[in-house]
Amino acid sequence: MEPDSSISARLPIYSHMTPGQLDFYFPFIVFFYGFLAVLVLETPVFARLGRERMSDLWEGLERRRNLAWVSFFIGGLWSLQNLWFH
């Protein structure tokens, strides 16, 4: 039996996502980015480990603290809106 040579069989899986599906999942991605970044930045244990072991990477994350908080709140509200209206 020959392998399926249709275009959809050759395309990567992300090309099968419709704009509607992307519109639904994107706020959750934004929220979880903000959640993880805020968790790492605001937990004293993680902050101490980050400063001690990964000082260059930690400085980069510190510069994005405001983005993390905005992503956390806006992504959270946007996700709740998607859940409410779907």
Description of the molecule:
This protein is mainly alpha-helical and 86 residues long. The chain has one domain. Helix content is 79%, strand content 0%. The protein contains 5 helices and no strands. 8% of the residues are buried. The model has no long low-confidence stretch (mean pLDDT 85).
What is the topology?
Layout: H1 7-10, H2 19-42, H3 44-53, H4 55-63, H5 65-85
Helix pairs in contact: 2-5, 3-4
Give me the strand/helix succession. HHHHH
> What's the rounded overall pLDDT mean?
85
The percent range for strand residues is under 5%
Instruction: Tell me the span between the first and last alpha carbons.
Output: 42 Å
Net shape = flat
Cα-based radius of gyration, to the nearest Å: 19 Å
Number of helical segments?
Answer: 5
Give the beta-strand count: 0
Biggest β-sheet description = none
Low-pLDDT stretches: none
Q: What is the percent of helical residues?
A: over 70%
Count of distinct structural domains: 1
Class by SSE composition: mainly alpha
What would the keywords be for this entry?
86 residues; mainly alpha; 5 helices
Please sum up the structure shown:
It is flat, with a radius of gyration of 19 Å.
